[in-house]
Amino acid sequence: MTIITSKTNPLIKKIKKLQKKKYRKDSYLIEGWHLFEEAYQAGVEFGTIFILEEEKERLPKGLAYQLVSTSILAELADSKTPQGIVAEVKREILERPDLSQGKWLYLEEVQDPGNVGTMIRTADAAGFTGVLVSPGTADIYSPKTLRSMQGSHWHLPIYEYSLDELTKVSHAPLLVTSLKDRSQSYLDLAPMEQLILLMGNEGQGASGLAHSLADQTVHIPMSGQAESLNVAIAAGILLFHLKNS
Length: 245
What we know:
The chain is of the alpha/beta class. The protein is built from 8 helices and 11 strands. It folds into 2 domains: 81 residues, CATH 3.30.1330.30; 142 residues, Alpha/beta knot. The longest helix is centred in the middle third of the chain and has 14 residues.
């Protein structure tokens, strides 16, 4: 098999476009063996798999692949030290869910890819039904978000909804995190079988619209002097409590 060594190769030029969000409508790139193995176990559909010749024996039998040089793999990867494999993954088309059933996490304008990925991974670990993201939330298919999710987007569904659209299609109680005086401690919440937990922007918190639509605003009591918690840490506390309540 020919090893691609040129940056001007048509396939490489085409695949490199997936490094930009506007080209990730149908597929996206993952890198490293951990994410690849998670994808394979999840039964995803691969596009082209790019791999170094010395790594090809690690691939499951029957998978097609394209050999590339170390320099070309570095061109396709986002990390400074790629782990020998970069793969194109086809995006799955999901039907719209019944948001009145189960427990959902909603991310409103969360900007940091690490926070987004961590919260999705935590929702997966806590056993939530799925995750909803606002149009202004960081792209879940960016390399940084993918590394932070560690494959959790293959374990639970993720959908994009504006807050306006969400309230039109869901009658589940909307819980909005807030530091305002009228918010209720999460420890005092009554058990709920269905809910949507909204986590807001890192700097601004939940929007005014979110507060106006909330069935309940909630906060985490803090004994120390810190004004607030990192949004991903706060989400972790609430997700595990609400899942088990």
